[in-house]
Amino acid sequence: MPRQPRIHAPGLFHHVMARGIEGCEIFRDKTDRENFLDRLSDLLAQPNAPRLYAWALLSNHLHLLLQPTDTALSTMMRCLLTGHAVRFNLRHNRQGHLFQNRYKSLVVDEETYFLELVRYIHLNPVRAGAVESLEELERYPYAGHGALVGQRMRVRQEVEEVLSRFSVKPGRAVAAYRDFIADGIGQGQRSELGHAHGVNQTGGGGDARILGGKAFTAAVLARQKLEKSEGKITVEDILTQVSVCTGVAVAEILGAGRSRRASAARAQFFDRAQKEAGATLTELGRMSGRTHVAVIKAIRKRRAIGDGTKVT
């Protein structure tokens, strides 16, 4: 059964997860984690970037609780994960895919699941054995929990928004949040928060991309259907996204340059434009001054190489 496209729902919350291929490590040391957070910080600082509410980095997977705005979440995640894979592979002298398939994203019913997901994500380091206690979790630099209890904020994070759910007074809010986190220790893995099982989940609305009940699921799907009918992404949109993501100018992507960065960005543009916007080989060749044979060679080479050697 073909996989369904992810749901882009600006303003709604998305639980985003990415895992290493075959369970491999995506962070081997402090430098890997710091490089990833630097990249995430840069992306969150861009205009119309998603807002981050909770996050955790583990050795072989990561969790983010994001609220996208006008910028498609997939654009940011592509830049984030591709960039990390390139840097990781160069540092550790490896090739090929780093992440398992596509990242996973669940659209979340805020009323039911927002605070539960904040707790679930921030307790991940405890359950994975990365830290041994809640006191140690507060000092753990690779999750968003510390920022919520007054530690240094490592990335741009909506601390006040989360704490306001507990109290309007900062001191009381932090104390209530700490109690809320502590109450979650005895709840077990709460695997349903990381996997929407559609009609099989408790109160499930029937779509594995949505964590919420039937009414919420129906509303999200109706909105998605309306947006799809109003228009789809264009070749020009993709060209702009690739330019922003890779740091390669549009003129260079479409030009004759043969540098590694330009070639990789050009191949990414050709591949995405064909798959996402339905562009023909002839159309892409005309845009870039190339034959359709040159275009298809670039696409095939990109797909053969895989995520691990894309350049951003």
Q: What would you say this structure looks like, in words?
A:
- By secondary structure, this protein is α+β, with helices and mostly antiparallel strands.
- It has two domains: 13-229, Alpha-Beta Plaits (2-Layer Sandwich); 235-309, Chromosomal Replication Initiator Protein Dnaa, Chain: A (Orthogonal Bundle), CATH 1.10.1750.10.
- It has 14 helices and five strands.
- Strand 2 and strand 3 (61-67) form a beta hairpin.
- Helix 10 runs antiparallel to helix 12 and helix 12 packs across helix 14.
- Pfam families: Y1_Tnp (PF01797).
Which terms summarize this structure?
Alpha-Beta Plaits; 5-stranded mixed β-sheet; about 10% strand; 2 domains
Q: Class of the largest domain, according to the CATH hierarchy?
A: Alpha Beta
Biggest sheet, strands in spatial order? Answer: 2-3-1-4-5
- Helical fraction equals 40-55%
How many helices? The count is 14
Summed up, the domain count is: 2
Characterize the largest beta sheet: strand count, sense, and whether it forms a barrel: 5 strands, mixed
The CATH architecture classification of the largest domain is 2-Layer Sandwich
Task: Compute the separation of the termini in Å.
Answer: 32 Å
β content, as a range?
5-15%
Protein name: Transposase IS200-like domain-containing protein
Organism: Geoalkalibacter subterraneus
Pfam families: Y1_Tnp
GO molecular function: ATP binding; sequence-specific DNA binding; transposase activity
